[in-house]
């Protein structure tokens, strides 16, 4: 995908307090919590880079400098590891800085996702017509052998123009937690998983949701979004919603499509779903997976036995 690069900046909103992970998030930003040994934000940065991004613009809040620091080189640590012959660990230390150039913009007040994304508008170069937004809570898993969903979205923007979002089909009883798409089935995009959108609504009651297709943290937005973000009013939860700015663009005739992602997804945003993500990645890990599988099977088979840690 590196040959065609319809965007080069990926915005990652990371200004939240991470209250669901207190007390850890008193000092450790939620975005740095590990999945096995790698912070969620590094996984998201890798996805952005694979889809063609060369710059990660982290929207941060005062006191969360550690998020951007993760992407700075650590030559002394690397040298120490190299001197000890620990080249694989040194490569892990280097990876984040090598993946992508990271910068920050500050969101001083928590006024919602739309406000956070809007804070990044002035940091774009004059020639940047589109920008990606990746929510770091959402880990969107490409199907085996497939490009990431963001890469597929980039290809759709090149073909059809406008803005392209990622959609997941979720059970109707869970739909009120999401931005929900109103799909226009009358337009043939030439791909059954690429659909034209005629509206979007943030966190509707389940019985009023226009579909069960929800947005899940991946957006490829035309630069016009920054103008739309200046023209919306507070919406769901009293916050400025990115969904409402996309809906405004659609109402004004701007083309918006979704790529329906049929692969997996993890939510790192709350402890329950974070645990599932951790276990899932651990089970697939060549070093830790086999022993964990055995331990879990044993634990589930004999739940009343004392825990054996080893
Ligand atoms: C945000 C967005 C929502 C989206 C969701 C999951 O909501 O506002 O449209 O569906 O992320 O990616 P949040 O989970 O921050 O409340």
TrEMBL record:
Catalysed reaction equations from the record: alpha-D-glucose 1-phosphate + UTP + H(+) = UDP-alpha-D-glucose + diphosphate
Enzyme class: transferase
Annotated GO MF terms: nucleotidyltransferase activity
Matching Gene3D superfamilies: Spore Coat Polysaccharide Biosynthesis Protein SpsA, Chain A
Organism: Pseudonocardia eucalypti
Pfam families named among the record's database cross-references: NTP_transferase
Protein name as catalogued: UTP--glucose-1-phosphate uridylyltransferase
Segments passing through the bilayer: none
EC number: 2.7.7.9
Keywords: Nucleotidyltransferase, Transferase
């Amino acid at each position: 995908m590196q040959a065609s690069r319809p965007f080069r900046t990926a915005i990652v909103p990371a200004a939240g307090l991470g209250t669901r992970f207190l007390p850890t998030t008193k000092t450790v930003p939620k975005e740095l919590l590990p999945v096995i040994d790698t912070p969620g934000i590094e996984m998201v940065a890798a996805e952005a880079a694979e889809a063609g991004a060369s710059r990660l613009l982290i929207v941060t809040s005062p006191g969360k400098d550690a998020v951007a620091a993760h992407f700075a080189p650590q030559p002394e640590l690397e040298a120490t590891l190299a001197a000890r012959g620990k080249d694989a660990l040194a490569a892990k230390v280097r990876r984040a800085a090598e993946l992508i150039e990271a910068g920050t913009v500050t969101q001083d007040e928590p006024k919602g996702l739309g406000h956070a994304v809007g804070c990044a508008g002035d940091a774009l170069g004059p020639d940047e017509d589109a920008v990606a937004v990746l929510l770091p809570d959402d880990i969107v898993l490409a199907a085996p052998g497939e490009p990431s969903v963001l890469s597929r979205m980039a290809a759709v923007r090149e073909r059809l123009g406008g803005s392209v979002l990622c959609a997941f089909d979720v059970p109707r009883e869970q739909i009120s937690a999401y931005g929900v798409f109103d799909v226009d089935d009358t337009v043939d995009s030439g791909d059954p998983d690429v659909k034209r959108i005629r509206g979007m609504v943030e966190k509707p009651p389940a019985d009023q949701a226009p579909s069960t297709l929800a947005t899940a943290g991946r957006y490829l937005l035309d630069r016009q979004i920054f103008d739309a973000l200046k023209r919306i009013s507070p919406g769901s939860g009293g916050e400025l919603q990115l969904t409402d700015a996309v809906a405004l663009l659609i109402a004004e005739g701007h083309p918006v499509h979704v790529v329906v992602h049929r692969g997996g997804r993890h939510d790192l945003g709350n402890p329950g779903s974070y645990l599932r993500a951790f276990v899932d990645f651990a089970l697939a890990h060549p070093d830790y997976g086999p022993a964990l599988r055995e331990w879990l099977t044993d634990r589930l088979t004999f739940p009343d036995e004392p825990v054996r840690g080893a």
